[in-house]
Specification:
The complex is a heterodimer of chains A (338) and B (615). Chain A has twelve helices and 14 strands. Chain A is of the alpha/beta class. Chain A has a domain of 209 residues: 3-Layer(aba) Sandwich (Rossmann fold), CATH 3.40.50.970. In chain A, helix 1 crosses helix 2 and helix 2 crosses helix 7. Chain B has three domains: 219 residues, Pyruvate-ferredoxin oxidoreductase, PFOR, domain III (Pyruvate-ferredoxin Oxidoreductase, domain 3, 3-Layer(aba) Sandwich); 264 residues, Thiamin diphosphate (ThDP)-binding fold, Pyr/PP domains (Rossmann fold, 3-Layer(aba) Sandwich); 107 residues, Rossmann fold (3-Layer(aba) Sandwich), CATH 3.40.50. Chain B is α/β, with parallel strands linked by helices. The chains are: A alpha/beta (338), B alpha/beta (615). Chains A and B meet through strand 1, strand 2, helix 3, helix 5 and helix 11 of A and helix 1, strand 9, helix 10, helix 12 and helix 13 of B.
């Protein structure tokens, strides 16, 4: 790392000791976020990092920015208030699968629906860590945990599907230890106007170690994931010979060279397309049938709540005859008592 | 105008308009009160409507009422019982008999007293006057529906529009009863229906027809005259409690230089505050209609962190949902005002009715030791003052404040004197003034004990706060037991010290009274009117009415100790009495409690106080 970049990166660290478990995926996500801010060169004072409750939600304490560690599940609502009150701030919401998708599910979908300009980092480790090992709304069906000793009997949420179902316009996925990719998607999230959801496949080393191992392990990662890039064909694999094609209305994995398939037949990723149909299919891909999609899956433009709110106020202020409290109370049905 | 057969001179009169919930009784009542206020009477009004938007037509459950009390001297309540009842159908007559003064005038629309409607209202015969034994009342049987149709027959309007105007016929007739001119009402109707001048003219035509009907029947009907009241000089307008609260916050925003943010979820009877502020984008108000009550307060807390004057509005069930977030505001020591317009509870309870049963919830409804400020408005128009002062206390002391209103104050109207420049003080937010490197996040003002406010966007003041216990100086997370003890006490002391910044408790009535009446919040008008009535009878009574509940005014104990007989009156089972006992264990308190979803009546209070005085 060049000296000045390192300096810039350190500028976003607070004086607090980081207290996550050694080996926890959160350390890498924190690094990626600080690097993202350094690369974007956002002034520290213009950053607000808002979190709920859970291991991930301790993150604001480690950032030299304005930070608010709030209550369980409410980070989306708190962050919405911050952004609407002061749209000049760049607002980051730090949350986990329990915080955002269980207790905070309602606020999560409504923030997305409104399209408030929040950058949400969703740490998905498929477990409740801070309460020591209960299943979460993203735990796989059948998952064994302290509260599901015989396996869960419920299907998990898929964060990408939920985001798109709530009319989301930005969804990206990365892996905790892939810092370079994380910085890339976090930067895209910051640049996107509106609610950006970044799902980070995070490893809880204590209560759910290796939960994402079958796709994140170096040995198979290239074959079991696909890094999507806007405008580029959807090619993956160690040999770069596998790709995605449409088969009717579903996706299928093909091998370039087989059955006369060439690179030209492979789907080209269009993250900016407003229609989310393909984005949804990409976001829902699961191993072993498909590679898991990483990178920016969806990044489309739509009206942004906080901008519209400001704009509406400006327009009405311009039009209305009421310019002050005095104007308001003296307009309409008043009478004099002499 | 022909000479009136008989004009009764009265100090005060109570009129109740009553009909189906679709009959336009709320508008009729509002128009009548506005006209009385302009005439110079003091007024107090109270609407009474069902929770259902359109309950089954013609039934008692669907009766909607609007009561206006106006007088030659000051009036503090909408009145217990009516001198004049307008009953648009049999159900309206049946539902209101309990609330009539002996010999009252009753105007009925005879056209709606058909067999079907009589049966729906539970009458067994076709003669309700006989059945309810109303011979002692002055009954005006007006063919309101037929006459309305008749006066509009040439205007080419559809039947529905015609029938919707019949409330104006009743209003015109009542205007005649009180010798009131129609001009102001006609002007308002023209403004209200400016986009639909046909409807305006139809309404005016029916209004005049109703008035003329009075002129025709006057030979047999007495009318009333109520002279204007002696009211403080100024510019006035009618205001209900909900609108007053919204406007109090607007002034607070202006006086503090902060932008106003409201995060809220619709809930009866608080919704009107949300609606009123939603319309005030011209004054820069940021209104966020949240997905639920929790998001209402959470967005407000976020906005407060970012530097706005942040408020959230709700009613009892909503306050229950906001409890955890309120605790965060206590811990983070951020300014926040939560308005709770109380209604009948528990659970969904009686959404459109009034009660004071959320006091304990406001004081204690949170986990941990979480002291905050609790205030209560005591009249529809002083909701304005208390909203302003709730914001001032929240900002200047960096604390959440719960402002209690209730269904009675929220919907009741009174004339409000528009405050003059300088009547309300400036609000000074305690922004950090020290250079960033010398400042600590939780260092405090030595007098008020508030921490200082550092707003995001200011270079160098970046800091982190949250719901975990804080180090008493740096604000860093601290699990130290001594520090926790210190912080728990510090947060309480901060709230307690606010007692030095609020007005002392006043005693109204006789200093050396034989009975001290104690009340709080929305019951003031009834308690004070009862006190005046007893005073007129030569009894020695005093009233101590609390608007600051946490902390209590500094002289509270001193006041209570002066009296040997004290009765605490409230619309719950004695929550304020319990609270006072916990604060002043040696003070003996009687209780007068009512939990019917209705305000006190002056009559029942008088009876009870007289009994206590005789004991």
């Amino acid at each position: 790392m060049a000296e000045n970049t390192k300096q810039a990166f350190l500028q976003y660290k607070s004086d607090q000791n980081v207290r996550w478990c050694p080996g926890c995926g959160d350390h890498a996500i924190l690094n990626a976020l600080q690097k993202t801010m350094a690369e974007l060169e956002v002034p520290n004072e213009d950053l607000a990092v808002i979190s709920g409750i859970g291991c991930s939600s301790r993150l604001p304490y480690y950032m030299n920015t304005y930070g608010f560690h709030t209550i369980h599940g409410r980070a989306s609502a708190m962050a919405s208030g911050v952004k609407v009150a002061n749209p000049k701030l760049q607002v980051w919401q730090i949350t986990g699968d329990g915080d955002a998708l269980a207790i905070g599910g309602n606020h999560f979908i409504h923030a997305i629906r409104r399209n408030i300009d929040l950058n949400v980092i969703l740490f998905n480790n498929q477990i409740y860590g801070l309460t020591k090992g209960q299943y979460s709304p993203t735990s796989k069906r059948g998952f064994i945990s302290k509260t599901s000793p015989f396996g869960t009997i419920e299907y998990p949420f898929r964060p990408g599907e939920l985001t798109i179902g709530a009319r989301g316009y930005f969804f990206a996925r990365t892996i905790d230890k892939e810092i370079k990719l994380s910085v890339q998607v976090m930067k895209a999230a910051a640049k996107h106007k509106g609610t950006s959801i970044v799902e980070v496949l995070q490893n809880c080393v204590i209560y759910n170690n290796n939960t994402h191992q079958e796709i994140t392990d170096k040995k198979y990662k290239d074959d079991r994931t696909i890094v999507l890039e806007h405008g580029k064909p959807m090619i993956f694999g160690k040999e770069r010979n596998k790709g995605l094609m449409l088969d009717g209305i579903t996706l299928k994995v093909v091998t370039i060279g087989d059955n006369g398939i060439t690179e030209k037949d492979i789907l080209v990723h269009d993250a900016h397309c407003e229609d989310p149909t393909i984005h949804l299919k990409l976001a829902d891909m699961e191993y072993p049938d498909f590679p898991v999609a990483l990178g920016v899956i969806r990044d489309a433009a739509a009206p942004v709540y906080d901008e519209c709110a400001q704009q509406q106020i400006e327009e009405i202020k311009e039009k209305s005859k009421i310019k002050s409290f005095h104007d308001l109370v003296t307009t309409g049905d008043v009478w004099e008592v002499k | 105008m022909a000479k009136r057969s008989k004009v009764i001179e009265r100090e005060e009169v109570v009129v109740r308009f009553s009909g189906d919930s679709g009959d336009g009784m709320q508008l009729t009542g509002s128009l009548f009160s506005f006209s009385s206020a302009i005439y110079g009477n003091d007024i107090s009004t109270f609407p009474d409507f069902p929770a259902e938007i359109r309950a089954p037509q013609g039934t008692i459950g669907g009766v909607s009422g609007f009561q206006v009390h106006f007088g030659h001297s000051e009036v503090y309540t909408p009145g217990d019982n009516a001198d004049v009842l307008v009953a648009m159908n049999p159900a309206a007559l049946k539902a209101n008999l309990e609330w009539l003064k002996p010999g009252a005038t009753i105007v009925i629309d005879v056209d709606s007293f058909d067999d079907k409607n009589l049966a729906k209202a539970g009458y067994k015969s076709n003669d309700p006057i006989e059945e309810d034994n109303l011979s002692g009342y002055n009954i005006i049987k007006a063919p309101i529906t037929a006459m309305t149709k008749n006066s509009l027959k040439d205007m080419g309007l559809d039947n529905k529009t015609i029938l919707r105007s019949k409330n104006m016929y009743a209003l015109g007739l009542v205007f005649w009863l009180f010798n009131r001119p129609l001009e102001n009402t006609e002007k308002i109707l023209r403004e209200k229906f400016s986009k639909n001048p046909e409807v305006a003219e139809a309404n005016i035509k029916v209004l005049e027809a109703g008035y003329n009907y009075g002129v025709i029947i006057q030979a047999g009907t007495p009318s009333y005259h109520i002279s204007p009241a002696d009211i403080r000089k100024g510019t006035y307008r009618n205001l209900n409690g909900n609108k007053a609260i919204a406007w109090g916050f607007l002034l607070a925003a202006e006086k503090s230089g902060l932008e106003l943010f409201l995060g809220s979820y619709p809930i009866t009877p608080a919704t009107e505050i949300l609606q009123e502020l939603s319309a005030r984008k011209d004054l820069g108000v940021k209104v966020f209609q949240a997905e639920d009550e929790i998001a209402g307060i959470s967005t407000a807390i976020g906005a407060s962190f970012a530097g706005d004057l942040a408020i959230t509005t709700t009613s009892g069930p909503g306050l229950a949902l906001k409890g955890e977030a309120l605790g965060l505001a206590v811990m983070a020591e951020l300014p926040l005002v939560v308005v709770n317009v109380q209604r009948g509870g528990p659970s969904t309870g009686l959404p459109t009715k009034t009660e004071q049963s959320d006091l304990m919830q406001a004081l204690y409804g949170r986990n941990g030791e979480s002291p905050l400020v609790v205030m209560a408005a005591s009249s529809p128009v002083n909701c304005f003052d208390y909203a302003f002062y709730a914001a001032k206390v929240a900002i200047e002391h960096m604390t959440p404040v719960i402002l209690l209103s209730d269904g009675f104050l929220a919907n009741g109207t009174q004339p409000w004197r528009i405050p003059e420049e300088g009547e309300f003080p400036e609000i000074k937010p305690p922004f950090v003034e020290k250079p960033a490197e010398e400042w600590n996040v939780y260092e405090r003002d030595p007098e008020k004990l508030n921490r200082y406010w550092a707003l995001p966007g200011n270079p160098g003041y970046q800091h982190r706060i949250g719901g975990l216990e804080k180090d008493f100086l740096t604000g860093a997370v601290s699990y130290d037991h001594h520090n926790h003890d210190k912080m728990v006490k510090m947060r309480k002391e901060k709230v307690d010290r606010i007692a030095d910044f609020i007005p002392p408790l006043e005693i109204l009535g006789d200093e050396d009274a034989d009975l001290l009446i104690v009340g709080w919040g929305g019951t003031f008008g009834h308690l004070y009117t009862a006190l005046e009535a007893l005073h007129d009878e030569g009894k020695k009574v005093a009233l101590a009415h609390f608007s600051y509940i946490s902390p209590l005014p500094r002289n509270s104990y001193e006041v209570l100790k002066k009296y040997s007989k004290i009765v605490v009156c409230e619309l719950n089972l004695g929550q304020f009495a319990s609270y006072l006992r916990s604060q002043f264990p040696d003070v003996v308190l009687h209780q007068y409690d009512k939990v019917e979803g209705l305000p006190f009546t002056v009559a029942e209070l008088k009876d009870h106080f007289n009994k206590l005085l005789e004991e």
